[in-house]
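Regression test attached.
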Amino acid sequence: MARKGRMLYEGKAKRVYETDAPDLCIVEYKDDATAFNGAKRGVIAGKGAVNNRMSNVFFRVLEDHNVATHFVEELSERETLVRRVAIVPLEVVVRNLAAGSMAKRLGLAEGLELARPIVEFYYKNDALGDPLITDDHAEILGLATPADLAAIRQEALRVNDVLRPFLAERGVLLVDFKLEFGRDSAGRLLLADEISPDTCRFWDVKTRERLDKDRFRRDLGGVEAAYQEMWRRVSEVEAR
Amino acid sequence: MARKGRMLYEGKAKRVYETDAPDLCIVEYKDDATAFNGAKRGVIAGKGAVNNRMSNVFFRVLEDHNVATHFVEELSERETLVRRVAIVPLEVVVRNLAAGSMAKRLGLAEGLELARPIVEFYYKNDALGDPLITDDHAEILGLATPADLAAIRQEALRVNDVLRPFLAERGVLLVDFKLEFGRDSAGRLLLADEISPDTCRFWDVKTRERLDKDRFRRDLGGVEAAYQEMWRRVSEVEAR
């Protein structure tokens, strides 16, 4: 098993460690939760374990559909071995229904189904509050070339095409989600970061009950239970 | 001369009237000034006359370069006969240098020259504060088709290609500007609205002194003088 070396990075929800292998890292998921660019803070008991294991289920499903991800091996409840990448400083958001900041920005009802899934790019920059940007902005800021953006957009929509039916079978509506991509030492674009109730909007298909971090953001209660319920749905069917 | 009929619309800086001809309107420019989506209000003496006449100079120059505009005939110091159009609800911003909201949003120094001119679309909606949007948003909101957006983007860059050297000859750096487009009854896309110190950032080429509405927005003083100086530069050379 890979040995945890020096801590490379500590984020809001994860720590990343070096390993003996220069191309591999260990990600460790925390229970810490933040929202609104760090303005709201808390702890969601058991979140780290749910997010680690759920992300890994999704990464494995995506790899099965030829989406290249950073996933290598789950090491423990909260730790995963991943390929080391340089993160492209974009938050890549895919939306199937209007919700959250998009609904507010455009004056759309939350839950409005979009005519087609769309991809948005946000500049990953806490000091600026992760602003929505256009392709031209990304290029001018040197965040990504037009070719990078086209590749990322296409890959993000492929992730949606895989996860949306996977979740629908489990009674979950995939409203929207945030992805991050990185490049490994060979320059290959890999899906990185996590895919979890922290980074997705998951609604129960029938009741439209929120099963994601909006319960924390909006003080809806039942936060821990929602994470566990999502894990139950994703893991039970996986074990079939 | 066309006769002013019923008022069709009163905006922050202009009134629009019907005429006897169904395809023609009269625009009347006011001295009223607003900024920050109406949060700041005032009067800039003489602004209406400067903006009317300056817009018309620019529209004539653009027509000479085969940019289709709504301009028909200047009727008086403050009034112009224009083709009636249905406005596409987009604020189309062309930027040569970072300034204003873009500099703030992306953390760029005001005055940074961009690698190439870029076009941004804002959703023309006061209640939402005219948010920046992506092409996908414009399409989903039904504001414009991808073909419309491509045509508008191309035309906006053509306007820049004409006005930037025209102004440079007059010692004025065209930092950025906002355009609005409309469709006439035949469906033809026309450049509409105005092109003036209200809608452009004009900087003196040498001193970088602001010669535009930023003097009002930012309480820099000398607001009226800046509008008159811009009119002097645009009109004097035109008369050569």
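Expected vs. actual: identical. Helices of chain A lie at 47-64, 100-106, 135-140, 146-168, 214-217, 223-238.
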